[in-house]
Design the sequence.
């Protein structure tokens, strides 16, 4: 990871901490540890103490940490994380007004309070809010993650054929992602026919029929950054009701995407897609219209009716309305967009865009 | 999921709650939600209120929940999880002495306290301890997960060849797992040569050389249960130092496995493997000697020097010592064993057992 980028992130976090009157932040959430240090491993905490950055890890990760963290002091612990963090605080007497990320577990927070022996507070959203605005390197990484996903799907589509199982199709797609040197950003969803009405369906041994439908929800990772795409296909004989539903979802998505722009309220965009479906007399989806993505597959902002606030330039979010009719069908279309001052840029445009007809039988 | 099994789990949890004087437990940890309800989805909580079991989920998961949960009342929420849980508590006036799992985040715990308006305590390990002893169905599921992993590796070994990347090999193995209708229990690790000294290495585009070594750490899932296996291979010309190290790790693992038995202290087994390596004048690994596995890939008990307590019949743990020499090599051998009254049963015996020589060039 680039030294300048990490330094500038540590500075941004330090500024926000200063504003909140916090002198020492214990960072326990993996994505936030990655963001502030560059470290991509697990089971480690970061700390920002009076503007200095630390990574607290163990021997499994030391070699990796040395490679990945250009700025942070790397502490190889031989005791529990909590004890190692307490040691650092003891060493830096200037560490006062200590906060822990509120995503920490209640159990660990209790241990931290016990080990540190001074007042410890909880801090919410310090890094999540900074992270929601992507810098150039992050935008470029997500674009690459989107391209890898698009390429993997393009390489998968020609081999889809009748009789193949959901699990096999997921496996082929995942293999293409691996071959491109990447990995899944989450477990690939492949759902045939009515299975697609389960929004988070896990691939089964259900076979693809002669006239069938396919929903694929998947993504790739590049340099720790995620892409997230959903596409739907019809195999064999067109199904007119499915096509109608597909058409409504596509238009609902377009209505939402058209509205995305810095300064627009998030709930307006969420509502645009829902309203379009409601007015088509089809059932409105129960999930959010989209979510931020970056180091995490789901991060701020969340596009939900109850979300407050407006879009900011540099945010990257999915737009993914759907229509689900249990026992009958499920259609969802999902793209990743970059919020700009003048609108938005669709980062997943190159991903094979849901041709409704595919004849591979 | 079998009705009788879930009922008996709810009874066991209720008994433990009674013993602790808890009348209502809010279960927020995904694996514990699965254990007490059968539900395999995400973003949902379970509750046990006066012996009754609830699953609090949303519309994305209702269809799946109806299929998977034979016992629990399924509540489809249209508000945040916290508000939905508070509603249930309000409805069941008998809900007193409320506890939340201490794995809950500090932020959510704060929201729960605010929403419920009565005293809420934290409870640690209620379900984790019960879950660490596997019932027949669980043992059988983990055995199947181990067989799937073994079969997938056996199908992968013949296609390993010089020039293949770590990422490609991981992709082929994952595809075999998918083809068997399963999925990864965690992200497959494939490390060639010195990359194996990073215990949690992520596969790269590094190519397999003519004379090279391979470490593969992977697992499959069956009915929500995990297997976890590590194997090492040499390709091409044997490397005598690597063979020596391999031999030490294999013997260290055997020394630990030989000691596993109900009633034996966990730290004794941990120490057996470490001591063998220490006496061979090779560097002792910094990670644990193993961990429980089941619904989670890492669960109780953890085989570490500081762990208190003894093995209990029905626990399933990995035994995975390793030797890591940065820039030079990494060797780890990992098997899954079922603790019995008389010793242990190795569940991963059928997985191709690290032939030191493979000639696929």
Sequence:
């Amino acid at each position: 990871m680039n030294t300048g980028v990490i330094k500038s992130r540590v500075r941004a976090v330090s500024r926000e901490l200063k504003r909140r009157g916090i002198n020492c932040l214990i960072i326990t959430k993996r994505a936030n540890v990655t963001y502030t240090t560059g470290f991509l491993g697990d089971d480690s905490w970061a700390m920002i103490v009076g503007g200095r950055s630390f990574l607290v890890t163990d021997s499994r990760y030391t070699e990796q940490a040395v490679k990945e963290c250009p700025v942070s002091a790397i502490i190889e612990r031989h005791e529990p994380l909590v004890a190692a963090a307490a040691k650092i605080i003891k060493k830096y007497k200037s560490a006062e007004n200590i906060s822990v990320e509120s995503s920490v577990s209640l159990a660990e927070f209790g241990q931290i309070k016990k080990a540190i022996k001074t007042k410890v507070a909880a801090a919410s959203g310090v890094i999540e809010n900074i992270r929601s605005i992507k810098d150039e390197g992050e935008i470029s990484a997500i674009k690459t993650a989107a391209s890898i996903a698009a390429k993997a799907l393009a390489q998968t589509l020609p081999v889809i054929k009748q009789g193949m199982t959901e699990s096999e199709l997921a496996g082929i797609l995942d293999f293409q992602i691996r071959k491109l040197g990447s990995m899944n950003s989450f477990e690939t969803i492949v759902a045939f026919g009515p299975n697609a009405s389960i929004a988070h369906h896990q691939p089964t041994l259900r076979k693809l029929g002669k006239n069938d439908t396919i929903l694929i929800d998947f993504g790739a990772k590049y340099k720790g950054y995620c892409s997230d795409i959903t596409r739907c296909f019809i195999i064999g004989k067109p199904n007119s009701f499915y096509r109608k539903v597909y058409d409504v979802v596509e238009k609902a998505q377009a209505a939402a995407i058209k509205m995305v722009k810095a300064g627009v309220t998030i709930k307006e965009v969420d509502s645009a897609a829902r309203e379009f479906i409601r007015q088509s007399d089809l059932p409105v989806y129960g999930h959010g219209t989209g979510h931020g993505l970056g180091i995490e597959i789901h991060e701020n902002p969340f596009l939900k009716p109850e979300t407050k606030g407006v879009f900011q330039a540099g945010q990257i979010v999915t737009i993914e309305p759907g229509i689900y009719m249990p026992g009958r069908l499920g259609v969802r279309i999902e793209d990743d967009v970059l919020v700009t001052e003048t609108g938005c840029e669709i980062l997943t445009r190159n991903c094979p865009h849901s041709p409704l007809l595919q004849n591979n039988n």
